[in-house]
Design brief:
The structure holds two protein chains of two kinds. Chain A has helices spanning 2-25, 53-71, 98-110, 122-135, 163-177, 193-208, 227-234, 247-259, 278-281, 301-313, 321-343, 351-364, and strands at 40-46, 87-93, 115-117, 139-141, 156-158, 184-189, 215-219, 240-244, 265-268, 289-292, 367-369, 372-376, 382-384, 388-394, 401-405. In chain A, 43% of the residues lie in helices and 17% in strands. In chain A, helix 6 links the parallel strand 6 and strand 7. Classes of the chains: A alpha/beta, B mainly alpha.
C-alpha cells in the first residue's frame, strides 16, 4: 500500500506530461498558415443517413452543382475558383441527430476547413454550431429555419430565412383560397427544435387571423402511426390542419389524415419542403400548401444557370428549395472567399485569421443568388426579398408531382 | 361511447403490430432463452423485400441505384415471398451469430451481443445497397378496399384492420401448431429441456433452426405489412419496433406466445389511453406501465416463474 501511495505523485506528473503532449499534438493547426495545397478547404455537414436524409440528398446536389459552377470553366461562374485555386468541398454525413452533426463539425474543423456549411437540421445546429463558434469557424446554414440560430454566436449565419418570416404566408394563402375556414387543428413534432419553433409561429399566425386552434396535437419524429392523434383531431371537425414536422413523419401523417377521411385544407411547414415527400404521402400530398423561399421562375442569370445545371443533372426536373439554398450557401462562402483573397491573399493568412476575416467578409457582402439578392444582418440573419406559396400538385399515378407556385404569391 | 370505442380500436390496431413483431422474438427466446437482437433487422428486410418484389425501384443513393426486378408480384404473393426471404436471412443469422457460440457453450450474453452485431451488419448492408431514403408501398396496393372503415362509430384504416386480423390468425395457427403438431411438441420439448429432448431423439439443432425460420417469416411478413401501413422509413425502420417489441416480450412473459399477443395489445391500449394532446409522451407512459406491471408480476402477464416455456 505504501509503495502505491509513494508512486501517486510520479504517476500524476507523468499523466500531466502525457496530457500536455497530447494537447499540443491535438492542436487544430489554427495558428498554422491556411493549407491551400489541394484547393481552398471548405466543409459541409449534411444529413445523408437517418430519417433526415431526404433533405441531405437535395442539399448534396445543390453543393455539387455549386462546386462545379464555381470551380469549372465555361459555366458562367467564377471559372477557375479563387485565384486559380478551386474550392475543395469535403462533405461529411452528420446523420439526423445532434451527436452526428457535432462529430462531423469537429472532424472538419480539425481537418482545417476555413468555413462550414450545415448542418441540415435546426435541432443539430443548436448542438453543433456552438462548437464552431468556440473554435472560430464561420458557419453558413443552408436549411436551419428555427428562431435563434444566428444568435448562437458571431460566427453563425444562415441563408435559410427564419420560419418567423415564411410560415405565416402559407396560412394567409390558405385563408385566401378558403375564406370559410373557421376551425384549425395543429400538429407538431414536439421532440424537434425546428418543429416546435415553427408551430409557435403558425399558431401565432392563426390567432392573428382570429383562428384559435381547436386542438394542438403533439407527435414525435420517429412516430409512424398517428391514428390516436388524427381520430382525436377529426372529432373536432377541423377545416384546416397545420403541420410542423419532418418529411417522413409529416408525409405519413398527411397520408393517414386523408385515409381517415379528412378532406379539408392542409398547410405544412418547411420540413416538408422537398420532393422526397412524394413517395411517402403519394396521391395524398396533392393540394397541400407550403411557403417557399425559392422560385424556379425567377428570371435572373444566376437562377437560369442554376436551373440549367440542375435540369442537366436530374433529367429536366425542377430544383426544390433545399437544393437552391445549398447552392446559395456554397456561393456565399465562395464569393466571400474570393473577395477576401483579393483584399488579402489567402496563402498569407494563418487559418484562424482566415476564418475570422472570412466571417467579416461574408456578413458584409451582397449576393445575387438563385434565391434572389440576399445579404446578412450583422448577427448573421439572411435578408431576402422574395418569398412565395406553393401548392403540391401530384400526377394521377401518385408517384410524382411538383410544387406549383400560386398566383398572387407575395412578391 | 363512440370515443371509448375509438380508443379501443386505436389501441388494438397499434397493439396488433407490436404483437406480430413480438411473436417472432418470443419464439426464439422460448427455445434458446436469449433475445435475438437481429429480429428488428430481419423485420426491416421483410419490408424491403416486399417493396422490391412488387416492382419498386431502388432510389438514387444506394449501390443498387435505379435497380428494379424484371417482374412485379401482386402484393400478397410478394408478402409471402418476402416472408420466406426473411426466414432465410433469419437462418443465416442463426448459423453465424448463434450456432458457433452455442457449440462452444458460450455465455448467453455473448449471443446477445453477436445477434446485435448481426443486426447492425444487416442494417448497414441495406443502407449500402438501397440507400438511406424512405420507400413506400403504393397506397393503391389494396385496390378495391376502402382506405378506412367505420366500426360502430370508430374509424380505422383498412390496412390496420388487416394487421389485427393477421396477428389474430398467426396467434391461432402458431398455438395450434405448438399444441397439436408433432414438430410443435418437439419444439416445446427442446425449450423445456434440450438435453432430455436429445435423449428422446429430437434433433435439437433442427428445432432451433425451425424456430428461427418461423420467427424470420413472421418478422418479414410483419415488416411488409407495416411498410404498407406507414411506409419504410429507411434502414433503421425496425429499430423502434424492436425496442417496443422487447417491452412487449417482457410484459407478456418471456417465451409465452399468447403472452406476446396480450402484451402487444396491452401496450397498444396503454398508448391509446394517453389523451391525444399528450400523445407525444405515449412511449413514456407505455414503459411506465410496463415497469408497474413487472413490479406486481415479475414473470410478465402470462409467463411462468421458470424460464423454460413455449
Amino acid at each position: 500500500m505504501g509503495s502505491r501511495l509513494v508512486s501517486l505523485p510520479a504517476l500524476a506528473a507523468a499523466l500531466l506530461g502525457v496530457v500536455s503532449v497530447l494537447a499540443a499534438c491535438g492542436s487544430d493547426g489554427s495558428q498554422q498558415p491556411l493549407n491551400l495545397s489541394g484547393g481552398v478547404p471548405v466543409g459541409a455537414v449534411l444529413a445523408l443517413t437517418s430519417n433526415a436524409n431526404a433533405y441531405g440528398q437535395d442539399q448534396q446536389i445543390g453543393l455539387d452543382l455549386a462546386q462545379r459552377w464555381f470551380n469549372g470553366p465555361g459555366l458562367g461562374g467564377q471559372a477557375g475558383g479563387i485565384g486559380g485555386k478551386p474550392v475543395r468541398l469535403r462533405i461529411e454525413d452528420g446523420g439526423g441527430d445532434e451527436q452526428g452533426a457535432s462529430q462531423a463539425f469537429n472532424l472538419l474543423i480539425d481537418a482545417g476547413v476555413v468555413a462550414l456549411i450545415g448542418p441540415t437540421l435546426s435541432q443539430q445546429a443548436f448542438a453543433a454550431d456552438p462548437i464552431a463558434q468556440r473554435r472560430g469557424v464561420p458557419v453558413v446554414a443552408p436549411s436551419n429555419t428555427a428562431v435563434g440560430i444566428p444568435q448562437i454566436g458571431s460566427f453563425i449565419s444562415r441563408v435559410s430565412a427564419s420560419s418567423a418570416v415564411i410560415a405565416p404566408l402559407s396560412i394567409a394563402k390558405a385563408l385566401e383560397l378558403n375564406p370559410g375556414i373557421s376551425r384549425a387543428a395543429v400538429f407538431y413534432a414536439q421532440d424537434d427544435a425546428y418543429s416546435t419553433s415553427e408551430t409557435t409561429i403558425f399558431q401565432k399566425a392563426l390567432t392573428t387571423k382570429g383562428l384559435k386552434p381547436v386542438t394542438v396535437q403533439r407527435t414525435q419524429l420517429n412516430d409512424q402511426d398517428f391514428q390516436n392523434q388524427i381520430t382525436a383531431a377529426l372529432r373536432l371537425h377541423p377545416d384546416l390542419i397545420v403541420i410542423s414536422a419532418q418529411a417522413v413523419d409529416g408525409g405519413n401523417l398527411i397520408r393517414q389524415l386523408r385515409e381517415l377521411g379528412y378532406k379539408g385544407a392542409i398547410v405544412v411547414g418547411n420540413g416538408m419542403n422537398t420532393p422526397n415527400i412524394y413517395p411517402i404521402c403519394q396521391a395524398s400530398c396533392d393540394g397541400i400548401l407550403i411557403a417557399q423561399a425559392y422560385s424556379p421562375e425567377l428570371a435572373t442569370p444566376i437562377n437560369q444557370t442554376f436551373l440549367k445545371l440542375y435540369k442537366q443533372a436530374k433529367g429536366g426536373a425542377i430544383p426544390p428549395q433545399l437544393t437552391a439554398q445549398a447552392f446559395t450557401a456554397f456561393q456565399v462562402v465562395a464569393e466571400a472567399l474570393e473577395r477576401l483573397n483579393r483584399r488579402q491573399p489567402l496563402g498569407a493568412l494563418k487559418l484562424a485569421e482566415a476564418r475570422t476575416a472570412l466571417m467579416a467578409e461574408l456578413l458584409g457582402g451582397r449576393y445575387d443568388t438563385p434565391l434572389g439578392e440576399i445579404s446578412f444582418t450583422p448577427d448573421g440573419e439572411v435578408v431576402q426579398k422574395n418569398f412565395y406559396v406553393a401548392q403540391v400538385r401530384m400526377q394521377p399515378d401518385g408517384r410524382s408531382g411538383r410544387f406549383a407556385l400560386l398566383n398572387g404569391s407575395p412578391p | 361511447m363512440d370515443h371509448l370505442l375509438q380508443i379501443l380500436v386505436n389501441g388494438l390496431s397499434a397493439g396488433a403490430v407490436y404483437a406480430l413483431f413480438a411473436l417472432g422474438y418470443t419464439l426464439v427466446f422460448s427455445v434458446l432463452g436469449v433475445i435475438n437482437f437481429a429480429h428488428g433487422a430481419v423485420f426491416t428486410l421483410g419490408a424491403y423485400f416486399t417493396y422490391l418484389l412488387i416492382g419498386g425501384p431502388v432510389g438514387a443513393n444506394g449501390a443498387l441505384a435505379g435497380f428494379r426486378l424484371p417482374f412485379a408480384l401482386p402484393f400478397w404473393l410478394a408478402l409471402a415471398v418476402a416472408g420466406l426471404g426473411a426466414a432465410l436471412v433469419s437462418l443465416l443469422v442463426e448459423a453465424t451469430a448463434f450456432a458457433p457460440l452455442r457449440r462452444q457453450r458460450s455465455d448467453p450474453l455473448l449471443t446477445l451481443i453477436s445477434s446485435l452485431g448481426a443486426g447492425v451488419v444487416l442494417v448497414n448492408l441495406v443502407q449500402i445497397l438501397m440507400g438511406a431514403e424512405s420507400y413506400a408501398i403504393p397506397a393503391g396496393t389494396l385496390a378495391g378496399l376502402p382506405a378506412a372503415v367505420n366500426l360502430g362509430g370508430a374509424t380505422v384504416r383498412t390496412v390496420q384492420l388487416l394487421l389485427m386480423g393477421i396477428a389474430a390468425l398467426v396467434l391461432v395457427v402458431l398455438t395450434l401448431w405448438l399444441e397439436r403438431s408433432r414438430s410443435g411438441k418437439a419444439l416445446q420439448a427442446v425449450s423445456e429441456d434440450p438435453l432430455m429432448a436429445r435423449l428422446l431423439g429430437i434433433p435439437a439443432g433442427s428445432m432451433i433452426r425451425l424456430a428461427f425460420a418461423i420467427s424470420g417469416f413472421l418478422a418479414g411478413v410483419a415488416g411488409g405489412l407495416v411498410g404498407l401501413s406507414v411506409s419504410i422509413a429507411g434502414p433503421y425502420f425496425g429499430i423502434g419496433f424492436g425496442l417496443k417489441g422487447l417491452g412487449v416480450l417482457v410484459l407478456g412473459g418471456l417465451g409465452s406466445v399468447p403472452g406476446a399477443v396480450l402484451g402487444g395489445l396491452v401496450v397498444g391500449l396503454a398508448e391509446a389511453l394517453v389523451p391525444a394532446e399528450f400523445s407525444g409522451t405515449k412511449d413514456g407512459v407505455a414503459y411506465a406501465f410496463l415497469f408497474l406491471m413487472l413490479m406486481l408480476r415479475p414473470q410478465g402477464l402470462l409467463g411462468r416463474p421458470q424460464s423454460s416455456k413455449v
